[in-house]
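Before a colleague's protein record goes any further, I have to sign it off. Thanks in advance; the entry in question is below:
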Amino acid sequence: MPPLAHDGLNSIVAALGPTNTGKTHHAVARMLEHPTGMIGLPLRLLAREVYDRVTAQVGERSVALITGEERRVPPRPKYFVCTTEAMPVDRDVDFVAVDEVQLAEHPQRGHVFTGRMLHARGVRETWLMGAETMRDRIRELVPTATVEVRPRLSRLASAGRISIKALPARSAVVAFSTAQVYELADRIQRIHGGAAVVLGALSPRTRNAQVAMYQAGEVRHMVATDAIGMGLNMNVDLVAFAGLRKFDGQRERMLETSELAQIAGRAGRYMNDGAFATLAPLPALSPETVFALENHAFPQVRRLFWRNQDLDTSSIDGLIASLRQRPRHASLRQVDQAEDHEALMELAGRPEVRRLASSPERVRLLWDVCQIPDFRQLLLESHLRFLSDLYQQLAGHRAVVDVDWMARQVARLDDVQGDIETLMMRISFVRTWTYVANHGRWVQDAAHWQQRTREIEDRLSDALHDRLVQRFVTQGRSRGGAPTGSRARRHPLASERDAPLPDSPFRVLAGWKLHAGTGPVPHPGTTPDAWVDAILDAEHEAFDVDSQGQILHAGHCVGRLSAGSELLRPEARVVVDESVGAGAKLQLQRRLSAFARDWVGGVLAPLQSSDLAALSPAGRGLVHQLSGRLGTVAMVQAREQVADLTGADRRTLKQAGIVVGSRFVFARALLVPSVVRQRVLLCRVFLSLRPVGSFPDGTGTWCPLDGSVEPTAYTAMGYPLMGDRGVRVDVVDRVVGALTRLSGTGAFELPERVVEWLGVEPGVDARAVMAAFGYEPGEGETWQFGGASSRARPRRRR
């Protein structure tokens, strides 16, 4: 189903339905139809997945990623991809979307989703996506919303009960404890040769590496917690439940049928049907549960968790009282289990904290500190002690975290030795420090600490992925990725266990070979791991594109531009050795695609100035035409928009360097030689033209034509066809002006400057070019208006 076409001001759309209805996909597509937008997602992992998708379409310079632990905010972002809690809702954007709004009934996080549902709004359009179980509550609490219930794109059917030996390829086994995940992954490794592991506690980098290994077919099975239930996109044919009970932070309980549906719905993607089953010895699901899952029939959510957002920070007691305010609507239930509230109550009872919280600013600071998540999941007292120490430093006379204290804490985490559990614990610890570093006013040199903690998390994530591969993947695999043995390689020495295995998928990624022609080698003085990390995490400025369309990193070819679906959307193809695994290619493809979008955006940057937003619809339409044609539009194609330009439009266009000439509309900034060469490359890539030929370089006023090239391509390059040559479009405008003035006196001779601009001899050589301008030879070496190519007699200056 295509996205809803609600174009009215402040329209609210509730896109509801089961999994695999394309809700999130269409919301992202809709967001990109607006000049600015923001989407809130329930998981950091999902936010990173959507960020990767959006940046691959519009480039990294236009997109911000904001989560509790990660902030990638370019200077002027158009789109914000966030976790729901981290959405900067005070920023005005045209489009806002909130995903998985049914989490409003979650005891811990529900109040955040309720708050976003009630208050987060786009200037022009808002989307609320989630389960159909939210239909009644949305109609009640957001009565102006248009509710659209979307059907699932594929069928979901029960496969009954299945044994671990009978698990088909593309199966995901779901368990509800880390210990059970490990046990099942071990069994699948022995029977089927390997399994990817997905846990909610994994960092995005580790999770992506595990999923890439599964998606590429290097392993055929996955074992996961219910973390896969929140919109993470994977090719799963069967979901097998290894348990039906989970600990929800308060007690162990049976899963609700709607929760089972959220997980089972990961099976099947787009139009491919999916199946769900229980894993023996667990009994099969009851007929009633099977019917509900197959038909997406679940009771409506009755009450949502809520918390007052209008907080009183004049004092600690005022803050506590405002947090205790009860909702006035019967469908809302006050949250009573939020970790930040519990932390505030505990810290408020400590004299050293209460003494410091003596002003509204310090009360707000205390509340911000209490909202730091307990990533470490240690004893509550340990988390409270950390929060107390942190607050006392921030509220002290220096008002920042003690750099020596932070350095000691962070340095202890920079250690890639140890087993899976140890590495996961370190990652959770470093996430806390990343969260702190992302509050820029809390630490000195915040950018340094953000980079430092991110680098440590990346190293720990890579080591964790390697340990998971060592433990849960048989190392002998065929070229096609299928297991060739049923036993994992054993290493007799602990030091060998801690080192990456030479033939693990991660080592393949780390040791991949790039080539340009015969192929470069890794940068001197760096390890393969460091080289790969440098490419995957490099900023836009670290890449370049040469005249052959090769994408270069530090002088080495890492990819190549090729024809895409549109002139402005070239594909970026990874250039790698055949031995590189498919998982590595997927990661590299995303990075290079994002760079390609940014590169094209840089070419068109003069047409994307915020000053142009003030243009009338006709003016914006004209700029849109210019963007689509690389900065040059023939007047015959733009006449309608030009006729409707207002006086203010013309002044704005002139200030932006956009010339409305007699033959063409063009942007002067796109005629500098470096940009002309980029325009030529885009045309060559799109039209698959050979690299040699007669193409302009921006330095000359004209260029000869290549007979194999479509003539209109020269217009897109900035050198429209005039007779037997391409003439730079600003020179065309100058020539038209000069000839118009000369023709006012009748027949005339070509001035030397016009001859030089056009690169022609005054005689026969000039005929084709002058005919294109509407002139024909007169007596002797004179010219007069009236050529066959003329559309209208030039106007004389008064």
